[in-house]
């Protein structure tokens, strides 16, 4: 018997018309008749009926996910993956671009497999599909949750028009160590901000809470929260390294953003590569089941990160792949990405009683539920819409959104003498290896990028200055002096390699002729991201040497720092008058940069990671504990037998929350509606007047921090608890008000209970984590 799932779903007056499940062999005629008949059965009934028809191996097949490989549309059935799909050994495929190819695989699932169960089709749509947005770390610097939602919506719109129904995003791993390359993929160092931004992105992708039975719109896709959990805490920032962390720290600092995304209704979760309590995350029952499901109420399915089941053998906690599969399944892992372990071994494990058929049913049901909510049982081809494929990808509308969002992510670090914005006049020299590259602007994890369609910085500037000013251009340098080092960071996205002396002379020549020099320098796209750890975060050798020579010309220099992480800019801060951190701004970065450099828009991004003075300061983060022998940040004199270093003062070069504007903001005094409250009965507001004291209308990000002065465990020196992105016209001032809620004062204590302890707190509000206005609040025990 074969169940028919081929049908068309369509929205009629807001209600989804879907077919009833058919219990007869599929034929096109039959399916068409079924389509007219009305609604699909409720999810439980539908899946009960479907699972009743499935063999044990077919259920296990649903738990298998593989890379599709390079298939041709006509020959898909003859590939390994095509054959496995036909056998019912595959629940989904991923990272394949091209509607025809995806449709060819979906065809096999529908027409050649016994039960015709449609495939999940995943992709790392991390910060856009073809319309690329800035890398996630940059996006977080917008502190703009509406923008995050838009990013999710546009990404989903494009991906779903290209056959994709599942993205491996958001990534909310807290990363405190900038040496780790994947700091680029998350929202920085703060748990609250990361959770808020991850939740907004998830809402954008899905448009629905997947804890309900709601069927997603056809232009939305399922999100996948990753990497669960603690991946960002790898020792010394070295990729795939050991993680060892107390539960108190997990609960207070690392797990909150994952929880926030679960509460936003994310449909799936990806387990991480690392150890948690010395057990691989993929096999960690406490994390995957007790915390994720029992404590937080997660209802979707858990997929492994790549071959993390096979990697359990390298961790040394299982003797073979069969045992690793059993551990993973029993811990709460539902889907095996790329280890081919579940399909190979679980049937045998059931026979031996190592796992039960019920364990497999549970995992299988979770995956079928996701397919149901994606509307795939109503219409397996709802993501294979050829018309949308032509209209919805890299559209003018999507590109405009990406351009606007990108402009919000640049962080202006220094602007001596208001060098920026530049006037569109005279001669501008654009210099640097990142100025005229098409394939490096989108940044890391740009699986579906279409660089041939993108505009380089140079091209965008030429267009912006056309008829008004002269643009002179020279590449100026390689990325590194050492060709091999440069290749490590290129990964196929090459930067033209040239003769060092010749390139430098060309740059100095145009610098002499120019009125102002703009440098596009820093990291290549793949000097951050997966497996791109660095031990020295300074500007690479040849680039810094060139920058120094350019500075010596006496001409004003603007540095556009390309980076997938906080880099060390100590020398640059001393010698370069204007520095803007531009990260990797996505496909529209050229135009977005021109908008800001030439003053059509005002920069508003603020750092979501502390920028270090030296690499040796890492891991560096603002919400640290005080220590028993604290030394204030920037204490110029070394203090013996205190918590500081011989060679560099404490504190960052640029703090968390920092970023300049073309205008200035003045903060008035902070007022609390009450300085003393009772434990279970309060309503307090913190109010501050913020004034735009400059001459440009602009956005400001007002930040609320709290410090718990004395508690049963040591608490951080401050923690972000709220923020508001506001717009103020030049000269305008506004009262900004934050509710201080009991939730903001809670923390996990030594018993891992989420509590408020009475006592003294500092409430702080300001434009960055260092410059704040402070008031004291006392929470009294109820008499
Ligand atoms: C490995 C990466 O860690 C993860 O982020 C990604 O989603 C998967 N590979 C799939 O490509």
TrEMBL record:
Location within or outside the cell: Periplasm
Record's keyword annotation contains Signal: yes
Listed transmembrane segments: none
A biological process term (GO) from this entry: glucan catabolic process
InterPro entries per record: Cellulose_Degrad_GH3 (IPR051915), Fn3-like (IPR026891), GH (IPR017853), Glyco_hydro_3_AS (IPR019800), Glyco_hydro_3_C (IPR002772), Glyco_hydro_3_C_sf (IPR036881), Glyco_hydro_3_N (IPR001764), Glyco_hydro_3_N_sf (IPR036962)
One Pfam family cited in the UniProt record for this chain: Fn3-like
Range of residues in the leader sequence: 1-22
GO molecular function, one term: beta-glucosidase activity
Main location, first listed in the record: periplasm
EC number: 3.2.1.21
Domain Fibronectin type III-like, residue spans: 700-769
NCBIfam families: PRK15098.1 (NF011678)
Protein name: Periplasmic beta-glucosidase
Name of the gene: bglX
